[in-house]
Amino acid sequence: MTDQPPFLSGQLLLSMPGMGDDRFDRAVIAMCAHDDESALGIVVNHIRGDVDARGLMDQLDIDHSEMDDAPVYSGGPVEPARGFVVHSTDYEGQGTLNVANRWSLTATLDILRDIGAGKGPKHWLIALGYTGWGEGQLEGELTRHGWMNVPGEQEIIFDTPVETRWPRAFEVAGIDVSLLSATSGRA
After folding, report:
1. Which domain holds residue 62?
2. What confidence score (pLDDT) does residue 180 get?
């Protein structure tokens, strides 16, 4: 047994039923960074109702004439006004973080300009905010009821309809969500 923490970059973190935090109800989090000191992920299945991609680009005065509209996701409760783009690895811009060769994360305006001009990555989603954990916090949460990590699959993030991402991620891990319970047993 090792004392090394489970480095989850490139994996999906799934909230379990009954975890008790409505902000993460049925959440699928693309884990983008995880080391000894902190962890950062983006929720990829909670859509914001107050803005879409074109509306956001209008607010930022970015031309979007060469792109289709798309939802904007609530990436998490930390810094909800800060933007992030989770995208396929076929694009690299200023500050792009390649996440285990599964997807990339960029948080600069140049990617939005490139997406709007039709020169961005093939697959992308825009999120406002992120999920974050301090040193040892995520490791502690993983030992209690609430989270499960599964292999990070691009198809879940980019090709699966948003309303089925949570059950699909469990299915890829061999788990039928209809068998999950919101309460735990006692021995």
Report:
1. 11-179
2. 78
Q: By percentage, how much of the chain surpasses pLDDT 90?
A: 77
- Give the number of domains in the chain: 1
Rounded Cα–Cα distance for residues 92 and 155 (Å): 20
Q: Does the residue 122 lie in any domain?
A: yes
Closest by CA to 91, choosing from 56, 119, 125, 62, is 119
Cα-Cα-Cα-Cα dihedral sign, residues 98, 23, 49, 168 = positive
Selection from 185, 173, 178 nearest residue 14 by Cα: 173
CA distances from 116 to 41, 57, 64, 157 (A): 24, 8, 4, 20
- Give a yes or no: residue 185 inside a domain: no
What is the CATH number for 126?
A: 3.40.1740.10
Higher pLDDT, 186 or 171: 171
Query: Are the beta carbons of 158 and 123 closer than 8 angstroms?
Result: yes
Judge whether 187 lies within some domain: no
pLDDT by residue (tens digit) across 49-108? 999 999 999 999 999 999 999 999 999 999 999 999 999 999 999 999 999 999 999 999
Say whether pTM exceeds 0.85. yes
* Residue among 88, 86, 77 nearest 23 (CA): 77
Residue type, 8: L
In a domain? residue 61 = yes
